Each structure stands twice: as structure tokens, then as C-alpha cells.
Amino acid sequence: MRAIKLARFNDVVYVNAFVARSPRQGRLVYKTSRLAGLWQLDLEDLERGGRWSVGYYIDGVEDRVIEYDVAIRLEWGGYVNEELDSTYVLWLSGDSVNIALPHEYDSRVAITAPRVCGHVNALLEPVYIWRSLHYYVLDCAGDLRVFKTFEELVNWIREQKCTEGHDVIHWLEWYVLPDVEWGEEEWSDVVGRGIAGRPNPTSDDVIKLVQKYLAS
Asked: Of 41, 75, 129, 151, which one's alpha carbon is 20 to 30 angstroms from that of 86?
């Protein structure tokens, strides 16, 4: 069995983006290259479209081989193999997101990542905001969002205001992550220097913190 523990910032983000999106139908594709000694896992949303890749990009490598291509379906606590029904392929436990290929009872490849998203109560889902090439928001209650400009991000933040007349955004846990290097940096290092915002902020509270640390 090959055991892989994900720690890189972008890998953790992409696995948890899939968990946050929670498509009803999905697909996991695991690829390897013997010459390069690398692997790649694609997590696909078959419901609304979208793909997140973790590991090392090998789609252009000549000897790339697809070792596992598994259709999955959302069930309580994770995703089961479409062909085997109650057999899990991706599931949440404790502080981990677990992936087993081809499935949990025949785990030839076992991948774990820190569990950032996937709580029972949507109000408890954290939000992370950072800047790399663009502005990014990992909204664990919904999706990974990308904004090309600060103005687009500001507009989205204002749209998160409570629709029931409260002048707040119902985020109990949210962070601005300065100085993110999209690549080899580890998730724990990035989050360790994150700036926590106060619970239930106003739109202006969020915008001011983002502007202070990301909009330079």
C-alpha cells in the first residue's frame, strides 16, 4: 500500500475545496508516472463541473498512467464507490480527510489531508482569504472562490451580509492569510501566521482587514 500524507498548502486547499463544494456525484482519478516517479490525484465535480488536482502535475508526461478512475456518490460522512454502494472512497474522521483507492476495503493508495472543511453545522465552517496570483477565498460553507481584482472580492464580501436585516456576516471563524507562496509551502505554516477576524463581522470589518494585509 502507498500511504501519502498531504501537507502542502495548495494540496490541502484543493482537497478541502472538494469537501466544501460537496457535489452529489464525483470522480477520483489517480495517475502515476514511473519515469518521473510522480503522482497526481484529480477530484472532479460531476454535478456542476470543476476539477481540483493534488500531488504533482503529470498530465503532460509521456508515460502517464491512470491507475484508478472511480465514480463516487455523496453519502452521510463521505463518498462511496458507485459500483460497490456502501464502500467508502473518501470520508471524514476526526481532523482528517481520508481517501482510499480503489476503496476502503482494498486500500492500495491511502491519502490523508488535514480536515479544514466539512463540519455538520454550516455556521461553524471557517473562511480563509489570501492573495497569490489572484485573490482567493476558501469558504468552507460553500466553495473555493477566485477573484481577479480587489474590487471583485469586495463586492463578494458585501454580498455575504445577513439577509435577515442584521448588519453582519455570520462568520464565526475567519482568517486573512498574508504572504502566501502558492507551491511548496505547508498549510500549517501559512495558517500559523494567519490573522483572525472577530466573529460576526460587518462587511467593512472584513474589507479593512483584507485591505490591510492583502491589497498592498
From this structure: 41
pTM score over 0.90: yes
Give residue for cell 514511473.
34
Cα separation values, 169 from 78, 130, 164, 200, Å: 28, 18, 11, 5
User: What ranges do the domains of the chain cover?
Assistant: 2-114, 122-214
For residue 133, which amino acid is it? L
CA–CA dist 198, 168 (Å, integer): 11
The length of the chain in residues reads 216
- The string of pLDDT tens digits covering residues 58-76 is 888 888 999 999 999 999 8
Query: Does pLDDT of 216 surpass 80?
Result: no
Higher-confidence residue: 166 or 202?
202
Give Cβ neighbours of residue 54 (< 8 Å, ≥ 6 apart): 6, 10, 11, 14, 15, 40, 41, 43, 113
Provide the terminal-to-terminal Cα distance of the chain, rounded to the nearest Å: 46
Beta bridge partners of 5: 112
